Amino acid sequence: MARLDKAGQQNDWQITALTTATSIVVALNQADYDGLLWDVAASNLDTTLATVMLIRETFAHPIIAITTAPSEREQRKLYRAKADAVIDRTIAMSVFSALFDQRTWAYQNAPAPVTTPAPATPPATTYQLGAITVDPTNYTVTKNGQALNLTKKEFQLLVYLLEHQNQVLSREQLLNGVWGYDLLGTSRIVDIHISHLRDKLEDDPKQPQWLKTVRGFGYQLEN
Asked: What is the pTM (predicted TM-score) of this model?
């Protein structure tokens, strides 16, 4: 940390040190940051991967993971979680500064996405959960007529659960069905998104009416 503080002074960086995954997510939602340096040793790998995947949904800035002698397994999982770089903590600060500058430049100069007309598709079903209406065609969710602010992945997870309502789905099924790839057993991201969905959908998230936990297996959307 002392080396990073020194580099921060040399590069005129304002560095905020946070100690928990939750505090990082909250901080990124409350203020603008130019990048995230994640110390893998500060939490277990599953928490790291789940949080990085969650942050990546809305954080269009460099995410750099730092660890000691990163193994092939660590690097593979971190890159699949969409980290920009995985570096050894012995890296020279001059090299780290150059890396951070390069990644920042890449984000700032990324070309605008090319939009193409969406292919014609048959109208999707509108789902109803009590006072909750989910419209997959228009990407909207309302409760008592008020729009709910879901992230892209929260919306995709909700629609996937609705498409399989009343079925018990394992965390691995949800991970593969919504995120589209397997992080070799990393299912913490599913638990985080289910928790966030309950906070937004349920009248009492601690006693959910719709999103039920099936202990020892996964989740079920009851309707």
From this structure: 0.67
Would you say 84 and 103 are in contact if contact means Cβ atoms under 8 Å apart?
Answer: yes
Phi/psi for 195 (5° steps) reads -60, -45
> pLDDT by residue (tens digit) across 154-212?
999 999 999 999 999 998 888 888 887 655 456 788 899 999 999 999 999 999 999 99
Domain extents in the chain: 2-108, 127-221
Q: Are strands 63-67 and 36-39 parallel, antiparallel or unpaired?
A: parallel
Q: What's the CA gap between 63 and 54, in Å, rounded?
A: 12
Class assignment of domain 2-108?
alpha beta
| pLDDT tens digits, 42-83 | 888 888 888 998 899 889 999 999 999 999 999 999 998 899
Task: State how far the Cα of 153 lies from the Cα of 193, in Å rounded to an integer.
Answer: 8
Taking the alpha carbons at both ends of the chain, their separation in whole angstroms is: 51
| Predicted confidence (pLDDT) at residue 112 exceeds the cutoff of 80 | no
CATH topology for 127-221 is: Arc Repressor Mutant, subunit A (1.10.10)
Provide long-range contacts, Cβ within 8 A and 24+ apart, for 191-197: 191/50, 192/50, 192/51, 192/54, 193/54, 193/153, 193/154, 193/157, 194/157, 194/219, 196/151, 196/154, 197/150, 197/154, 197/157, 197/158
